[in-house]
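Quick one, tokens below. Sequence please?
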């Protein structure tokens, strides 16, 4: 069973938690921790790899290369943030073909205008429903593997209204999307009402410090959500710990007090399936 087919099986049978990763080593840690799938964060790739904000600065070529490293490093399914599809309908079609060839199990494409912004910031603008429908239809038709999961993300809640987010979601499903990602819903009741209104596999974004309340996987599963992503959790924790270590190293001149808070050489080699004796 390929990873795209496996992902569809997982979301049919329950709610899949997908920690966000920004490189292949972190994806291996997610897999070793027992998770069934990985989310490749667009913000994570921008922030951690290029040191730039999440405003669409990475190209399709760069995202495909980086996401491909991650997908090939693990056996579990990986989905990736494909931003706006990197252009119009033809670009979205090429995006799907490239990501599919790189080993991804699925992706999400959003209805923001380019250059996009983080979904939990102000100042976003949207393409028309008609333009997004054309993009979704082209992306769906471009798949070589019908199991590749095409998720349409709508940012309409923050830009237009909750009702417009529902309307757009239904339109994108009719255009060929397999699942819907309603970004930046505000309050538990909105998560509940969206799930009642949209009959499709739904993805919930549990990012920290955003517009949406943090809810547990079980709570979201009860509401009807089939995927939950934690895009920047691992990145934020890693950056916080690294910042503390660097301040301590600068002031003391030694890392000795951090040894019991490090991954050891042996643990790293085990993660990489590397035997240094061979």
């Amino acid at each position: 069973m390929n990873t795209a087919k496996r992902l569809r099986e997982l979301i049919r049978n329950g709610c899949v938690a997908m920690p966000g990763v920004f490189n292949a080593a972190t994806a291996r840690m997610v897999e070793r921790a027992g998770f069934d799938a990985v989310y490749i964060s667009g913000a994570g790739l921008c922030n951690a790899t290029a040191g730039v904000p999440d405003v669409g600065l990475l190209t399709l070529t760069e995202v495909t290369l980086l996401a491909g490293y991650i997908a090939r490093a693990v056996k579990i399914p990986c989905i990736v943030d494909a931003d706006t599809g990197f252009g119009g309908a033809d670009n979205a079609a090429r995006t799907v073909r490239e990501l599919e060839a790189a080993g991804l199990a699925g992706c999400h494409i959003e209805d923001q205008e380019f250059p996009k912004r983080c979904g939990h910031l102000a100042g976003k603008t949207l393409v028309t429903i008609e333009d997004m429908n054309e993009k979704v239809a082209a992306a769906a038709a471009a798949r070589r593997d019908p199991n590749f999961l095409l998720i349409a993300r709508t940012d309409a809640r923050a830009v237009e209204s909750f009702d417009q987010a529902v309307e757009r979601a239904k339109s994108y499903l009719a255009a060929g999307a397999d699942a819907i990602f309603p970004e930046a819903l505000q309050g538990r009741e909105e998560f509940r009402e969206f799930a009642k209104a949209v009959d499709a596999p739904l993805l919930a974004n549990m990012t920290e410090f955003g517009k949406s309340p943090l809810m547990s996987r079980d709570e979201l599963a009860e509401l009807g959500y089939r995927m939950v992503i934690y895009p920047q959790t691992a990145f934020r924790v890693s950056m916080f710990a690294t910042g503390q270590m660097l301040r301590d190293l600068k002031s003391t001149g030694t890392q000795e007090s951090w040894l019991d808070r490090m991954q050891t050489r042996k643990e790293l080699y085990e993660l990489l399936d590397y035997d240094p004796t061979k």
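The longest strand covers residues 16-21. The CA atoms of residues 134 and 148 lie 18 Å apart.
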